[in-house]
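Q: I have 193 residues here and want to know how they pack in 3D. Can you give me a structure?
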Amino acid sequence: MGIDLKAGGRRVGHKSSTKVIKTQNPYTRLLIKLYKFLERRTDSKFCATVVKRLHMSKVNQPPIGLNRLAKYMTNKEGKIAVIVGKVTDDVRMLGDIPKMSVCALGFTESARKRILAAGGECLTFDQLALRAPKGANTVLLRGPKSREALAHFGHSTSVNNPHTHDGVKPYVRSNGRKFERARGRRRSCGFKV
């Protein structure tokens, strides 16, 4: 039984996306180097997952809010939350957040302030490598993939091609009769999507 070349083709020149580091960020590149080494020398699944996630694009490294983080870390005292992405503040959380150790690629200013005020700590991945090289006593977390922000990503439409990306949601001040209902939304004014 051979390969159905007409249907699928022979996959040529498709290197694994993790062979080449695409990001130009020097810190991320160093972290990939570090965790690749740890993965190779310790055979830890944790390090392998962290390397895989460090290679991901920004869209695939969604941020996680403090509310969700606190919810996931209930009854997990003494463990470190690990997020390959950013930790953001949640203004809907009025009370104090629980004390927790969080390791992430970045923290917003207010999120860092609240974590430290609760007696917790904000770690970087190189600090985590010293503390838990195999990922012992850690909880690997991810933010929500389907965020509202994703609805706005993509190409905008144009007169030449009104259907480049029909599903892209415009940033509109309000959803009323008077807002963004002319050009691009009716045939008499240019084009309609």
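Q: Anything worth noting?
A: The longest strand covers residues 80-88. The chain has a mean pLDDT of 90.
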